[in-house]
Specification:
There is one protein chain. The chain is an alpha/beta fold. It folds into three domains: about 140 residues, no CATH class; about 100 residues, 3-Layer(aba) Sandwich (Rossmann fold), CATH 3.40.50.720; about 190 residues, no CATH class. Helices cover about 45% and strands about 15% of the residues. The protein is built from 13 helices and 13 strands. Strand 3, helix 5 and strand 4 form a beta-alpha-beta unit. Helix 1 runs antiparallel to helix 2. The longest helix is centred in the N-terminal third of the chain and has 33 residues. The radius of gyration is 27 Å and the shape is globular. This is Sugar transferase. Pfam families: Bac_transf, CoA_binding_3. Its main location: membrane.
């Protein structure tokens, strides 16, 4: 009996990933080499207990061998063992960086075991320096590579997975909106496949071609897609989903199943298999406990340090406001904060003193929806206020609110509304302290609709963590410098 052999095709996805992986391998080797040479040059001159200077074969010293070969190769081995080259982690933000950090821990353990096994008395200072330098250099380079990759995806849609959406039209369109809203994630929907034909007279309107009744695997190959995304468990019967997975074996295609539980990520989700049935455990959001205490301590320490460090800038902004426009330097307004408690937020004044009196006359020009009032070219904003808003410098005095415990560095933005305006799901925003920056601010700021802003704020409330806060703070810098959505 002839045996069927499935040839794994070289899809466009595989080609771009292989090129990206090859670049990472070269970059990681060069990074490890530079880190090793840096430590050998700066640290080991003062503490020459790590490198062996004896000559091997009269030509190549052990020093050069360790610096130029052993350390880079050992580091790349640790990265591979930690899954830093796994295609499922490439370009996936914090997941990729976590694997680099795990490789660094493994590197430290490996050096310690080698020293113990070879009975070498290694310099602790130099070992610590090489471990820390490897971590810092690699994290910076990997973060830069990810920025370049996401930029390519946003501009050209290349280096992305081409996705066929399978499921009910409403579910497929919802997933299409999520994917197209964040092209940097590398998922580019190209078509929709409906499991059942539309009802007679039902109109099907979609931004991509819609197919019905085709065999999925041949259709995906014909369209040049490399990923099938099943939109919710209700889209296919369990046996149909299992059969689809069997059909995809050996084809090089990826299968993604989108659960009905949305906007829940990170450590709150755990898969628990029982008798072949994968159960998705969703834990309650952590909005209290030790993590919250650590967040408060870090907030206050960072706010105090920031106020001291930025005091010359704050004084300069205050003088500029005072010299260019009559009126107070600061603007204080009542905002709704944690658990509905009202407080006065500190901001540099960016509008003329009669801004509140002119508000009613501008109501019809409001370009926002929901509880917000926004106009791109608001005539009430002073000339210097436009520059302050563009770089979000007017928000810096809110470090005082953070120091007083009324706000946090990261969280939903406090809005100038009454407590009674927060009804239904929107009220969940008040479960955490409002922040100077947040997921809303790094995802579009004033360009977002009220619905999107609320969705992002609730996502933060349900999934917040200290790591998430650091990631938002990091992204805030690039968003502010790019002046995206600020007016």
């Amino acid at each position: 009996m002839a045996r069927t052999v499935f040839a794994r095709p070289v899809t466009p996805r595989a080609r771009w990933r292989r090129r990206y992986l090859a670049c990472l391998l070269v970059i990681d080797f060069i990074t490890a080499l530079v880190a090793s040479i840096t430590v050998a040059t700066v640290v080991d001159k003062a503490d020459a207990g790590f490198w062996d200077q004896r000559v091997l074969g009269g030509a190549v010293s052990a020093f050069a061998l360790v610096v130029n070969v052993v350390v880079p190769l050992l580091w790349m081995t640790m990265l591979a063992a930690a899954g830093a080259y796994d295609r499922r982690a490439l370009g996936r933000g914090t997941e990729e960086l976590k694997r680099v950090a795990r490789a660094n821990v493994a590197m430290a353990a490996s050096v310690s075991f080698l020293a113990l096994g070879l009975k070498k008395d290694l310099s602790r200072t130099t070992v610590a320096a090489i471990i820390i330098t490897l971590l810092v250099y690699t994290l910076v380079v990997r973060a830069a590579a990810r920025v370049v990759l996401r930029r390519i995806r946003r501009v050209t849609h290349k280096a992305s997975q081409k996705v066929m959406l399978v499921g009910r039209l409403s579910d497929a369109l919802a997933l299409h909106d999520v994917m197209t809203r964040n092209p940097g994630a590398g998922l580019h929907p190209i078509a929709i496949h409906l499991p059942q034909s539309p009802r007679p007279g039902e109109r099907v309107v979609a931004p991509v071609p819609v197919y019905v009744g085709w065999d999925l695997v041949p259709l995906v190959r014909q369209l040049g897609a490399d990923t099938i995304a099943v939109c919710g468990p209700a889209s296919l019967e369990s046996y149909e989903l299992r059969r689809l997975a069997w059909q995809m074996e050996g084809t090089g295609l990826d299968l993604v199943v989108v659960p009905q539980v949305t906007d829940v990520t990170g450590p709150r989700i755990h898969v628990r298999p029982i008798e072949g049935l994968p159960l998705l455990n969703v834990e309650e959001p952590t909005i209290s406990g030790f993590s919250l205490l650590a967040k408060m301590i870090l907030d206050k320490a960072a706010a105090l340090f920031g106020l001291v460090l930025l005091s010359p800038l704050l004084v300069g902004i205050a003088l500029a406001i005072k010299l260019t426009d009559r009126g107070p330097v600061m603007f204080r307004q009542v905002r709704v904060g944690h658990q509905g408690q009202a407080f006065k937020v500190w901001k540099f004044r960016t509008m003329y003193t009669d801004a509140e009196q002119r508000l009613e006359a501008l109501r019809e020009r409001n370009e926002s929806d929901g509880l917000l009032f926004k106009i791109k070219d608001d005539p009430r904003v002073t000339p210097i206020g436009r520059h302050l808003r563009a770089l979000s410098l007017d928000e810096l005095p809110q470090l005082v609110n953070v120091l007083m415990g009324q706000m946090s560095l990261v969280g939903p933005r406090p809005l100038p509304t009454e407590d009674d305006d927060y009804r239904g799901d929107v009220r969940r925003r008040l479960l955490v302290r409002p922040g100077i920056t947040g997921l809303w601010q790094i995802s579009g700021r004033s360009d977002l609709t009220w619905e999107d802003a609320v969705r992002l704020d609730l996502h933060y409330v349900d999934n917040w963590s200290l790591v998430y806060d650091f990631a938002i703070l990091w992204r805030t810098v690039s968003v502010v410098l790019a002046r995206r959505g600020a007016y």
